[in-house]
């Protein structure tokens, strides 16, 4: 009976792990540029100093859904959305290049272009710093043009260009920080064919109905594991009573 109890227990734990993945997706249904995670279960043997006769289900995250989300028009000059495939390049908390679809850009107190969460945005030549300006325009290739503060309408200066990349999705992974990273740690080159739309942001690609359906299905599966553990406990108690009478 211990084998059945172990299977039921491990199944319940892994079902809770699967629920965590789908609950995180659902919680980010309105997060700009969020990419939904997949989950799957597979058989995993219990290894150790014994014959590997025990097998349990293990939940894992095999990948991330990279399909584009819906385009949301904001009319704000600092908002950009990737057209089709590709990513904006940012610097993560360790100063390494990472990638995102969140184009809700800001200018911090130091004049640096950052994301809505404060991460520095990478340009083709490094971080992007902006002088005091009167207006700003981001073109489809990611070039940033400004009219300096107090300047005339014809005094347009190109300050820099967003680093836009379009790597193979098979070489990408989503980190715990919510950013996209390369699996092998390589830095991707600028892709001249990737374009942005100014005045738009991209919504999450989470399907709320699909995620709710998964969560309800997993809840029923968890209840089934609990019922199985209770049945095993009752059977074990009944067997003990029979042995006591013998």
From TrEMBL:
Compartment list: Bacterial flagellum basal body
Acyltransferase is among the record's keywords: no
Keyword Mitochondrion: no
Pfam family, one: Flg_bb_rod
Record's GO cellular component terms: bacterial-type flagellum basal body, rod
Keyword list, A-Z: Bacterial flagellum, Cell projection, Cilium, Flagellum
BP-aspect Gene Ontology terms: bacterial-type flagellum-dependent swarming motility
Ranges where the Flagellar hook protein FlgE/F/G-like D1 domain occurs: 81-145
Ranges of residues in domain Flagellar basal body rod protein N-terminal: 5-35
Protein origin, superkingdom: Bacteria
Positions of the Flagellar basal-body/hook protein C-terminal domain: 198-239
Primary subcellular site in the record, as a coarse category: other
SUBUNIT field: The basal body constitutes a major portion of the flagellar organelle and consists of five rings (E,L,P,S, and M) mounted on a central rod. The rod consists of about 26 subunits of FlgG in the distal portion, and FlgB, FlgC and FlgF are thought to build up the proximal portion of the rod with about 6 subunits each.
Family, similarity comment: Belongs to the flagella basal body rod proteins family.
Record-given protein name: Flagellar basal-body rod protein FlgF
């Amino acid at each position: 009976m211990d084998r059945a109890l172990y299977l039921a227990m491990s199944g319940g734990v892994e079902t809770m792990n699967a629920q965590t993945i789908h609950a995180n997706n659902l919680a980010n249904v309105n997060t700009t540029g969020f990419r939904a995670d997949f989950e799957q279960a597979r058989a995993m043997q219990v290894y150790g100093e014994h014959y590997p006769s025990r097998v349990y289900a293990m939940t894992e995250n095999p990948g991330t859904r990279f399909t584009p989300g819906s385009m949301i028009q904001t009319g704000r000059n600092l908002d950009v959305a990737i057209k089709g495939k590709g990513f904006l390049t940012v610097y993560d908390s360790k100063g390494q290049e990472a990638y995102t679809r969140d184009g809700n850009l800001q200018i911090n107190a130091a004049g640096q272009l950052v994301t809505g969460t404060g991460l520095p945005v990478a340009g083709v030549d490094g971080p992007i710093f902006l002088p005091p300006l009167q207006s700003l325009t981001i073109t489809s290739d990611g070039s940033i043009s400004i009219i300096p503060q107090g300047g005339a309408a014809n005094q347009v200066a190109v300050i820099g260009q967003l680093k836009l990349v379009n790597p193979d999705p098979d070489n990408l992974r989503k980190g715990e920080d919510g950013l996209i990273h390369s699996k092998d740690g390589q830095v991707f080159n600028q892709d001249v064919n990737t374009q942005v739309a100014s005045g738009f942001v991209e919504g999450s690609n989470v399907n709320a109905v699909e995620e709710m359906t998964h969560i309800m299905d997993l809840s029923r599966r968890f209840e089934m594991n609990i019922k199985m553990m209770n049945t095993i406990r009752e059977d074990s108690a009944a067997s003990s009573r029979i042995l006591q009478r013998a």
